[in-house]
Amino acid sequence: MPALPFIFLLLTVISGGGIAYFVGGAAVLAFITEDQARFLAALPQRVMGQLNVFAFLAMPLFILTGELMNRGGVTEALIKFSMSIMGRFKGGLGHVNILTSVFFAGVSGSATADAAALGNTLVPAMEKEGYSRNYAAAITAASSIIGPIIPPSVILIFYGALMNTSVVALFAGGIVPGLLLAAVLMVINAVIAHREGHPGGRGAEVPAFFPALLQALPALSLPVIIMSGILMGFMTPAEAAGVAAVAALLVGRFYGRLGLRDVIISLQRTVVLTGAVFIILVAIATFGYLMSIERIPQALVAWVEAMNLGKMEYLLLLNVIFLIAGMLMDVKAALALLGPLLIPPAIILGVDPTHMGILIGFNLTVGLLTPPLGGVLLILATVLKMNYWRLVRAVLPFLLAELVLLAALILVPDLTLALPRYLGLVN
Known about the structure:
By secondary structure, this protein is mainly alpha-helical. Helix content is 76%, strand content 0%.
């Protein structure tokens, strides 16, 4: 393929334009320079065929659910309930931060939503109790990436639709890795808490368990509604997302924090975010159409075979590529741009598509903690008005632990696949 489309791509990336425009523009330019312009007549039909996927319907509904919950007073109820469980341990508020992210993951499925919500609430509370702002922000950032791993997860829906993989199997596959991530972060927090003398331990004042549980029950019911309906076969992911959006509206009204203005803002945000996702999908579908015409995936498979890369070697290489992409690009953009090109050879080599989806989702969300463009770090640094590079330094112990867990998930597929197999969702 000639260099002109890639030069155009590079220049538009440097200019700061939207990814949909520079990917789509480069793809159309490549059609022309490759003397394949006649195929552009079929492009609209091809693109609409790729976007006409039922699983995509769940994405805007889960985005709406997260928006409603963020504005509905859910965060405070989840924090209080988490405090009633973990507040009595050394470094208790750090554990509360992680546990709240686990509960929040079952509601929003978004790392950035988690980071923004907890950054405004738990970080000031931790500072008040004697934690440094850098540490409080770092553990908030590290725990926020639990959101896209534990279902419902927008990134897993995106992967499932893009790679024609069962979203139900992906949701089941994300549960154990998400809980393992929470456990690993709690171990790191406990070690640092004892070393640095963080607050907590015996005699710490914590909320009463049962009153906190009663207050949090409406919020905790959402993950149960979503996952029980999906995993037991009562609802498709799209139907569960619709039920969750209605339940989120009712829960917000129950807490008395969700007015008409909040609902309107949530709908507006959902429309904007959904539009941003789908315009990227249109651009990537254009790029993918060209790749299929030029037989790039087949050439890539031949290259892998010529390099004599086995399943594990290619899987490790793939994760390094996606890790670098996650440092520099938006999560969905990186998946949409690289996934259709790099993932099929892994499937041909024998990697389970569900295992692949969890690895890529985990990998790309770790990129949200990685400079130079770690999205979660940028959000927290902005929300908390703190130095970005100090936050990067503080998050390093958690980031290293998450990379070790990623390596374990790569080497031991059963950590991901045991639950989907038990439920009969994968072979």
